[in-house]
Design brief:
Layout (H helix, E strand, L loop, with lengths): L10 E4 L7 H6 L4 E6 L3 H4 L2 H11 L3 E5 L8 H13 L4 E6 L1 H13 L7 H4 L10 E6 L11 E6 L4 E6 L7 E4 L9 H19 L7 H23 L4 H15 L12 H13 L3 H16 L4 H12 L8 H18 L17 H8 L13 H10 L2
Parallel strand pairs: 1-8, 2-3, 2-4, 4-5, 5-8
Antiparallel strand pairs: 6-7
Length: about 400
């Protein structure tokens, strides 16, 4: 087990009707805020009206910034920074999924910063202060509600980049599984894939011994598998939705990475698909992760053997370690297909004409990626080719 520090200050407010507490929770920090959200979905399900009433009842003045899209963009972040500065706003309430929350996080560190907020994403500067954030989560997937990371797309530079800071941790996150009842099957599946991928980036580690977090990771993945099938059959099953929502938070709040070196190569490869082709993050990961597994598994076949046996129930008595490991990868890929996700680039209308070498070069600007095994240009190109 590696040395580690674990810190997470986010207050989680979980359960039925908790969105009605938004105004009361915000009032603890500010009486003038930016209300940040995506499109019309929160209005269609009645959440917007509940939030507005809650803020007004608490005596909170709010300015609205709507229109956050999947793969949130730098232009929107800069709009939010300007609104906050012009109106002396010192708190943001993000109502939405990971895209909205990541956008709010970037705004929060950009408001007090004299330079370009993109400096943080490029590693040119580190934030020293931020305005506060609260969250009402609508889509369990990204785990941004209690993570230390924000990921933003810069369309001009064709880059999708993230950075970490404890300053990005929200003050509170309100999680009501009922709010997720109306999420369509594809988005539900994408959320499950995103959550599982956050766990896998920690599970596939070069750290030789971290048994407790191994088993926490394996148990969380099994819970997601079981409950996503339930939700796809019965979208309003509260208990199953609750398991998925809590799993998305646990997967990315840092606890599953304690004592182990994390990988994150697959996320970087998936980011290229999002910035160049607009691919939904969870769908990009469902294509990239099986391909990455097939390419790197022989580097540590024992870990993939363990993944196959403990997560997918592959009988360890019938086959070599490598055969068992490959069966586990196959079962993971079949699961993704079963829940309606793409597993090949062709499913995303991306073919052999894609410039994999250029995509690899962009990700390698800061050196080799990944830690389970360091990936260079040829490795990355080969993984994309496996995914075709």
């Amino acid at each position: 087990m590696e040395n580690f520090r674990f810190y997470n200050s986010v207050e989680i407010i979980f359960g039925k009707g908790t969105e009605n507490l938004a105004g009361k929770e915000v009032k603890r920090y500010s009486d003038k805020i930016l209300l940040h959200y995506g499109g019309t979905s929160i209005k269609k399900i009645g959440l917007y009206e509940k939030i507005i009433k809650s803020l007004r009842d608490a005596g909170v003045t709010f300015y609205e910034l709507a229109g956050v899209q999947p793969n949130p963009v730098l232009d929107m972040v800069n709009k939010g920074i300007n609104i906050c500065r012009e109106n002396n706003i010192n708190f943001i309430l993000a109502v939405g999924g990971g895209s909205v929350i990541d956008s709010a996080k970037a705004i929060s560190v950009g408001v007090p910063y004299d330079g370009d907020v993109w400096d943080f994403f490029m590693g040119k500067s580190k934030p020293s202060t931020a305005i506060g954030i609260g969250v009402v989560l609508t889509v369990p997937a990204a785990g941004s509600e209690s993570s230390t990371v924000s990921v933003i797309s810069n369309k001009d530079a064709l880059l999708k980049k993230g950075f970490h800071s404890n300053l990005l941790l929200p003050r509170f996150a309100i999680l009501n599984p009922e709010v997720s009842f109306t999420i369509d099957p594809f988005q539900t599946a994408c959320g499950a894939a995103d959550t599982i991928s956050h766990i896998l980036e920690r599970y596939f580690t070069p750290t030789p011994k971290a048994d407790l977090t191994d088993r926490l990771c394996e148990g969380a993945i099994r819970s997601i598998i079981d409950n996503v099938y339930i939700v796809l059959k019965n979208p309003e099953d509260f208990d199953a939705r609750a398991e998925l929502m809590w799993a998305s938070t646990i997967a990315h709040n840092g606890i599953l990475g304690t004592g182990r070196i994390e990988d994150w190569a697959s996320h970087k490869l998936a980011h290229e698909l999002s910035i160049l082709y607009g691919t939904i993050h969870g769908a990009a990961l469902s294509v990239i992760f099986p391909a990455w597994m097939k390419y790197v598994c022989r580097h540590n076949i024992r870990r993939f053997f363990q993944f196959a046996v403990r997560v997918w129930g592959v009988d360890p008595c019938f086959g070599t370690e490598e055969e068992i490991a490959l069966k586990g990868i196959g079962k993971f890929e079949q699961f993704l297909k079963d829940i309606g996700l793409p597993t090949r680039l062709k499913d995303l209308n991306i073919g052999k004409d894609a410039d994999f070498a250029q995509m690899a070069a962009k990700e390698l600007q800061w050196g080799p990626i990944g830690n389970f095994i360091k990936l260079n240009k040829d490795d990355i190109v080969n993984i994309y080719k496996i995914a075709l």
